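Progress report, Aim 2. The chain analyzed during this reporting quarter is listed below.
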Amino acid sequence: MQIDILTIFPHFFDEFLRHGMVRVARRSGRLDVRITDLRAFAEDRHRTVDDRPYGGGPGMLLKPEPVFRALDGLGLETGSEAPEGVLPLLTCPRGQQLGQRDLEEFSGARRWIILCGRYEGYDERIVEAYPWRRVSLGDYVLSGGEVPAMAIIEGAVRLLPGVLGDQESALRDSFNEWTGPDGLDHTHWTRPPEYRGRVVPEVLLSGDHGAIEKWRRESSKQQHSDRVELRESSTAASGSSPDGRQDGAPQEVVPGEQDVEQDL
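Predicted structure tokens for the chain:
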């Protein structure tokens, strides 16, 4: 898999690429990551990549010219579908919230092109011109797309064949084959069998594989139940609900309020 990352902070990824499963995948030849500095495609002596929004308002926007020129060099054309096997990714609040099924799908592409936003967001022509797969990590604000890009890469690369030492590890992860799409992994315990008065469940020391598997299934169900209860408690405490209402009334949205920084 080849991943092209477009960013104004190319060194943001230096340490990330040297560690963990990303390092394993790169060393084994299963992953090739290439960083493109958007400032290299600016044409003025200040290497300007941002400008103020038309109509006024706070902050700056990522300009279209450097992005279009960088994407030209990567072979992504405006107004047309991406080449077969190429996945253009754009982190933005309009995107679908990232899930495990998305990571599984992404891991099957032969090449990604990820644009990391900054400032208030993108000039809309950047969004409109290309066949982006729009992705959001959640309903919160970050200052740029570099951290989301790393999260997506970290989640998908471990699914590439041969990257994990034991491929069953991925199958038994939360939200996967063993747990089901909404399930959570069971709790885990290791040596020593007792520490500061806290002991490992006896069944895990029994050597009875059938009993252990049954215990793990029950533990997985309990983790899911606890998670649902936690979310319901949080919703009740905030007085909000999944449809965006509060105390039974629609929440008002202040124009521009959601654009204080790059929403990811």
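The longest strand covers residues 86-97. The two ends are 24 Å apart (CA to CA). These observations will guide the mutagenesis work planned for the next reporting period.
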